[in-house]
Amino acid sequence: MQYQIEAQKPVRIGVVGVGSHCYRNILPTLTYLPVQLVAVADVDLERATAVGRQYNAKAYASAAEMYAAEELDAVLLCVSAKLHPQLTIQAFEAGLHVWMEKPAAMRASEVEAMLAARGDRFCVVSYKKAFMPATRKAIELLALEGNAPIRSLLGVYPLSLPEDGPAVLAEGRKSAWLSNGCHPLALMMELGGAVEAVTTHRSKHDGGACILHYASGAIGNLHLSKGVPNTQPCERYLIAAGSRSIEIENSRRVIYQRGIDFSYTHGTSFAQGNCDTGAIVWEAQDGLNSPETMSAVTQGIHGALDHFIAAVAEGTRPTICDLDFTLALTRVWEAVLLSQGKTVAVTSG
């Protein structure tokens, strides 16, 4: 991590959309990145001016005005999904790299349009669960000898599906599945890879399950646990790989289960064996008051921004949650809405 004040050659950025989420989560995180916030733009010029005053940045009423007046390297888009395609293409045409909040668009066809306009510019979508330290640790563990193949993945997330999924898709209606379904999907696709088909089962009382058929042959089950209080620890992931398993609990704990020396008939201790067996646990230490324990870090917001800013600074394409990944994810998201109990193939073109 590099603090803003430590940057010798900071990346010059502008921000479009400085509403509540941006003000609470994105702007404060810039302190921990090698950037210079040059300007902000918002349709509410009074709000943009107030934010600009606080961060010593110029304020504009539109992205176009900001692009015309300022020399920027990149832009952060913190607006609704309906505005992302237009604003992203506009930024590409202005020669800027783009980081945007999730979800990237309302339909896969809109992501295709952004890809067609991208040229040599970079783009990262903040599917933050893919950037969580817990997710990156799980990927590191999956690369170890003996942890292949991935056999199955389980995700538990407090969400429901709309009853009329095809109509929601056709009419472009906003739903909780649009706003939040991308979170667990991004994590499960970052871990498990490409998804070939989806089968969705919806409970009569909300909730349900999305079965992900991975190209690798693995099966994923995204259990939509609607009704579980989302003000309590309620998010879980389990990856069964090789002869071991990896668990992610509520974004802040990773458990690596390696098994123990075990005798079904003569064993007398659950803690048998040496330190090469049993579980290893990594957990955020909230008592330290250090950056690594902040929710912006544990939830992956900082990771998404850091990955993007590093790509821009180094001139290398991002490898996590770029527009190609985003297109694949959006197609899976669409297939979930279309399934309604039937297996739906995820299109590749």
UniProtKB/TrEMBL annotation:
It holds the Pfam family GFO_IDH_MocA. It comes from Devosia ginsengisoli. InterPro entries: Gfo/Idh/MocA-like_OxRdtase_N, Gfo/Idh/MocA_Oxidoreductases, NAD(P)-bd_dom_sf. This is Gfo/Idh/MocA family oxidoreductase. SUPFAM superfamilies: Glyceraldehyde-3-phosphate dehydrogenase-like, C-terminal domain, NAD(P)-binding Rossmann-fold domains. Signal peptide: none annotated. One of its GO terms (molecular function) is nucleotide binding. Residues 11-124 form the Gfo/Idh/MocA-like oxidoreductase N-terminal domain.
